[in-house]
């Protein structure tokens, strides 16, 4: 009999997942560039990084335009966006025949909002006391942008500790990401920072209006689009691969330590 391969089949990256990884790369590069820029600025005795950034319009425009384009895309249906943010649109509503709307994570929404606002108020207070400058607040937003993708691809504390949702597709607060990302910019009184924050709040408001008008679109029980068979992301498969990789690494390390202990 031919030998069978019992190892799990390797999942291929979908288009949506590939977009996430691309975002992770350029957001990380933006954060690193801003961090290096800030360190050099501070070591040279600079005091107003806002004016310095504005004197480099190419860098400023690149940083601003990337996120504006990302947010504008979220206002419209798109096949390269995650089902998690696309479920708000009527074209993605697939009736299941059931009428009971079940959104298990809805009760934790206010807790998440409270925790996030309280968390960032600490940074805001440090900024108002002069301990943090505008550069630190910009770095915080850039770091949040990287963490946003890390939450999608690898581990999300909001999903694990608060919302308990199945995956990103069913996440109740998926389109809160940009508003959360740009929260620190509230304390940076510049037109480019407040414009990003204003657009992110508009995106959040659009999301919440859609939820209260059409909650059936946000429930897997009533919207078949959120079911696993219709998922265009398949991130769960990649997360399972990573979990298996970590287990294999841990097992290999354990065997190596045993071998070294015997020698």
* Intertermini distance: 41 Å
H/E order of the elements? HHHHHHHHHH
Considering DSSP H and I runs of 4 or more, what fraction of the residues is helical?
A: 55-70%
Q: Quick one: overall form?
A: globular
Helix segment count? Answer: 10
Q: Regions with pLDDT < 50 over 5+ consecutive residues?
A: 1-8
Main sheet: strands, sense, barrel: none
Compute the gyration radius: what is it? 22 Å
On the 0 to 100 scale, the average pLDDT is: 88
Walk me through the structure.
- The protein is mostly helical and 263 residues long.
- 61% of the residues lie in helices and 0% in strands.
- The protein has helices spanning 15-43, 49-54, 57-74, 83-86, 109-128, 134-153, 157-163, 177-181, 191-213, 235-262.
- It is globular.
- The two termini are 41 Å apart.
């Amino acid at each position: 009999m031919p030998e069978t391969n019992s190892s799990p089949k390797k999942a291929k990256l979908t288009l949506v997942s590939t977009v996430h990884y691309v975002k992770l790369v350029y957001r990380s590069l933006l954060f690193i560039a801003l961090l290096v820029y800030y360190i050099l600025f501070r070591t040279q005795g600079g005091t107003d990084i806002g004016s310095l950034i504005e004197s480099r319009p190419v860098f400023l425009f690149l940083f601003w335009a990337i996120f504006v384009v990302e947010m504008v895309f979220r206002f419209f249906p798109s096949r390269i966006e995650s089902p998690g943010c696309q479920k708000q649109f009527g074209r993605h509503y697939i009736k299941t025949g059931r009428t009971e709307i079940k959104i298990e994570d809805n009760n934790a929404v206010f807790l998440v909002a409270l925790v996030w606002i309280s968390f960032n108020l600490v940074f805001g207070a440090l900024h108002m006391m002069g301990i943090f400058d505008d550069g630190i607040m910009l770095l915080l937003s850039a770091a949040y942008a990287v963490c946003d993708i890390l939450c999608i691809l690898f581990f999300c504390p909001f999903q694990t500790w608060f919302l308990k949702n199945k995956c990103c597709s069913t996440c109740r607060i998926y389109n809160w990401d940009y508003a959360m990302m740009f929260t620190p910019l509230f304390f940076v009184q510049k037109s480019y920072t407040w414009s990003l924050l204003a657009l992110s709040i508009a995106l959040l408001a659009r999301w919440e209006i859609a939820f209260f008008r059409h909650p059936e679109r946000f429930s897997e029980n009533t919207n078949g689009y959120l079911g696993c068979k219709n998922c265009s992301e398949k991130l769960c498969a990649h997360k399972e691969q990573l979990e298996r990789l970590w287990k294999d690494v841990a097992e290999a390390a354990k065997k190596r330590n045993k071998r070294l202990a015997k020698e």
